[in-house]
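Document type: protein sequence-to-structure record

Subject area: structural biology

Format: plain text, a pair of labelled lines:
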Amino acid sequence: MTTHPRPDEVPADLDAVIAEAPADATGALWRLTGDGRGLDANLVRLLPGAAYAEHAGPLLDVLLVVVAGGGRLDTPDGPRTLRPHAACRLPRGTSRSLTAGPEGLAYLTVHARRPGPDTVPPAPAGLAPASAEGGEPACFLNRVCPACGRPATEPVAAYCSRCGEELPE
């Protein structure tokens, strides 16, 4: 059995991660973890012909690097062919969709770390606490990823920023 670095250790052998994943595994196969980091990175795999529907990343620029396979990236600037070792910067707010080619598509996304629930700053001093009146709290379950449990930070997110899984309707 080959041992690989923990996800928070770099370098990581992404080719080995892909080779050792079950053949039908999709979504995030690997992610950068660990406290104190300033980056998020995910190795995502789409099976042949699969697609991520059009969506926008409103908060952060994203670097997308194809690791294996190929496909197509559609943006307002038009379609782009993706093949191994192609790199693309997706500026924040860019609308895009991805479609895997006949060999599938494995790609790495890298962006600045988004603040999560554990990094939310305390409320400013003097801010009045929320009133106990007003009925039931709003339900945000449609913003919680069913695969990894991470809550979406954007109110209109369609996909999880951590693992790429589609969020509930």
Summary: Residues 15 and 61 are 25 Å apart (CA to CA). The helical segments are 14-20. Confidence is low (pLDDT under 50) at residues 118-138.
